[in-house]
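User: quick one, sequence for these tokens?
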């Protein structure tokens, strides 16, 4: 089988800085754990728009199709806010998701013990929290037609369409049941079946998949607004949550904040297995490009490094190495090392982006 491959797309803002730390981690695994990885790099988002007038070129798209996984930093920035939708940096993200058919977006929300005090919720509510949101990523209102701004009766009308086919619901439901089976065998599906037909169908299809294929997984349903409330009230009642594209966008931000820092959360977007058995995949931190701190060496690289850990687990079949990396991060945090976003009331040792990367590599080495 050919060498596993990775396409790195650092993107904009803090993307390149945090990606430089991932490179250190990759080099460590290559040198010490026999990782074979064919790594290439390209520009995307505003960086690509500046050079090519488009946020992602056809060549980059072709490369993304070829590799086993894409690791993306972040895209966007104030400089590009007024651009037309068709060339905005975010367009690159949406195109990668859609064309690689990355329908299952895994967004874990995990509360690291050393950081319990960072949550805006009481420590007992978040301590030990470890939940997974699966967001449908290639359909729903993000992509539904018709869409646009039209003129009707002398005024403009903005239109987007929520639309889900049975097969789209089935495949994301299966991905979620599979995950739940490997975790605590509990899945909660969220929609608005009380007001939306797409929600009625969603609920029916998820229930059918559960009854016929996953009777061992405990399935529940919740309206998404109630789900948002329950996430903040007592998040530990959940294990895996599955929901549509837009609700998933919102609920995953809520879940992220439960853990205290957006700078800590990774994500994986997975498609169907390909001929070589590996799913099409893209990994990215949940945080954005943080233009306010870009270029200052302050950004927290942990979310991007944890995204690479997810790549080790889901694309390269190296779950043990993924755990090794997660443990190293846990240790560095327990040692009190903190980038600016993690400096709270209890202090800690303030460090920058590069020092955090170095500390994680040192922790990997000392655990050898
Ligand atoms: C996310 C982001 C994106 C989304 C934006 C940047 C297009 O908010 O990944 O959650 O809305 O999906
Ligand atoms: Mg979002």
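Assistant:
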């Amino acid at each position: 089988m050919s060498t596993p491959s990775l396409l790195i797309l650092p993107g904009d803002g803090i993307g390149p800085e945090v990606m430089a730390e991932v490179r250190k981690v990759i080099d460590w695994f290559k040198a010490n754990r026999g990782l074979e990885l064919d790594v290439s790099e390209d520009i995307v988002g505003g960086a690509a728009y500046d050079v090519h007038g488009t946020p992602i070129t056809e060549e980059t798209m072709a490369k993304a199709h070829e590799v086993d996984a894409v690791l993306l930093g972040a895209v966007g920035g104030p400089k590009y806010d007024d651009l037309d939708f068709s060339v905005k940096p975010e367009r690159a993200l949406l195109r990668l998701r859609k064309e690689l058919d990355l329908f299952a977006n895994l967004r874990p929300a995990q509360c690291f013990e050393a950081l319990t005090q960072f949550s805006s919720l009481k420590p007992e509510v978040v301590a030990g929290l470890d939940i997974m949101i699966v967001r449908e990523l290639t359909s729903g209102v993000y992509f539904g037609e018709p869409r646009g701004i039209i003129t009707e009766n002398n005024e403009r009308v903005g239109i987007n369409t929520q639309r889900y086919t049975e097969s789209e619901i089935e495949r994301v439901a299966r991905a979620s049941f599979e995950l739940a089976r490997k975790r605590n065998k509990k899945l909660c599906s969220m929609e608005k079946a009380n007001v939306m037909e797409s929600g009625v169908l969603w609920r029916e299809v998820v229930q059918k998949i559960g009854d016929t294929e996953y009777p061992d997984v405990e399935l529940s349903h919740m309206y998404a607004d109630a789900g948002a409330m329950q996430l903040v009230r007592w998040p530990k009642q959940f294990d895996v949550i599955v929901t549509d594209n837009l609700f998933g966008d919102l609920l995953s931000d809520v879940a992220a904040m439960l853990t205290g820092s957006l700078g800590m959360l990774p994500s994986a977007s997975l498609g169907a297995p390909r001929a070589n058995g590996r799913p099409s995949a893209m990994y990215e931190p949940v945080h954005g490009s943080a233009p306010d701190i870009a270029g200052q060496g302050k950004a927290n690289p942990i979310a991007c490094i944890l995204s690479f850990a997810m790549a080790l687990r889901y694309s390269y079949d190296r779950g043990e190495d993924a755990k090794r990396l997660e443990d190293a991060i846990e240790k560095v945090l327990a040692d009190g090392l903190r980038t600016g976003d993690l400096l709270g009331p209890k202090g800690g040792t303030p460090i920058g982006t590069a020092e955090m990367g170095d500390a994680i590599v040192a922790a990997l080495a000392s655990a050898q």
